[in-house]
Amino acid sequence: MSSFENNNSGQNTVNSEFEAWVGILYSCISADNQITDSETATLSRVLSSKQKFVGIDIAPLYRKAFNVRAELGQLKYISACSEWIKGEDKETVFALALEVLLADGTLEKEEKNVIEVLSNQLEIEKEMTSKIIEVIFLKNKGNIKGI
């Protein structure tokens, strides 16, 4: 490995739990290659509502998520991020992922695929996955599409 690769390696991987949370949620809103204002607003809202993110500047985490996702690709990035999610946070991150995906009132095919991959990567049991999906769908029923 050259010294250039050594110095740049942190830019191409996930290096913290914060990066992992943002990376997963960013991957979800960008799954259909269209990021709506409602998805961005929901992503910011859900992160800022978590005690874990108090005092954390999210903007650099977004930029890194954008770059690393572009370099690794959607699936490898989700896999890399999932490794950083603590056991007690896995179901929460999964529920938040669904929340940001449904912010625009629709769930496209690509987004459904991301949810399936994320559920598998986070090793969430099928029964719990179904429960979380049902609750988030009920919560977001009647949302205005595309806002």
What is the terminal separation in angstroms? Answer: 47 Å
Residue-averaged pLDDT: 85
Q: Total number of helical segments?
A: 8
Helical residue percent band: 55-70%
For the CA atoms, what is the radius of gyration? 15 Å
Compute the number of strand runs.
0
Brief overview, please?
This protein is mostly helical and about 150 residues long. Helix content is about 65%, strand content about 0%.
Which keywords apply here?
mainly alpha; single chain; 147 residues
Structure description:
The protein has 147 residues and is mostly helical. The chain is 65% helix and 0% strand. It has eight helices and no strands. The protein has helices spanning 3-8, 17-29, 37-48, 58-72, 74-82, 90-101, 109-121, 126-140. Helix 2 packs antiparallel against helix 3, helix 2 packs antiparallel against helix 5 and helix 2 (17-29) runs parallel beside helix 6 (90-101). The N and C termini lie far apart (47 Å). Mean pLDDT is 85; it is low at 1-9.
Strand and helix layout:
Layout: H1 3-8, H2 17-29, H3 37-48, H4 58-72, H5 74-82, H6 90-101, H7 109-121, H8 126-140
Helix pairs in contact: 2-3, 2-4, 2-5, 2-6, 2-7, 3-6, 4-5, 5-7, 6-7, 6-8
